[in-house]
Specification:
Layout: E1 2-6, H1 13-21, E2 28-31, H2 36-39, E3 48-51, E4 65-70, E5 73-78, H3 90-98, E6 103-105, E7 113-117, E8 120-124, E9 132-139, E10 142-149
Length: 151
Amino acid sequence: MRIVVCSDSHGRRDRLLRALDQQPKADVFVFLGDGAADAGFLLHADKEAYLVRGNCDGLSDLPLWQEFTCGGKKILCTHGHYAYVKYGLDDLLRAARDHGADLALYGHTHIPRVDYLDGIYLFNPGSIAEGNYGFVDITRAGIVCRNITLR
């Protein structure tokens, strides 16, 4: 199972579309906020999609947190501003533990990052507006998170 993860498009829908075009075999799309208007089309695509609201998304009716299961792994998604990720990952890790998540996806900082703490992956794809996104492969062997730069 492949999950394409994007965040922080900030009006650069073109870059979001490029990232999705570069991953045609993806099973799931996740958008982590700050560009909800750019990513709304994902809700009507032929792939499974999960979107959360970021701090720049105004009065969007998207949730602040969302969880789903993929390939037998529980995934927690948030933009990150309510988990104060610019100041550390403790609150995000605590939320992931509380939800029984194997993987927590977050954005907000615009910095691509992969951490493995207390048996939980914490993955930030960076900002798609700046040309960064990521994917997660869930296989029988486990979870692999990878940051990518747009071609």
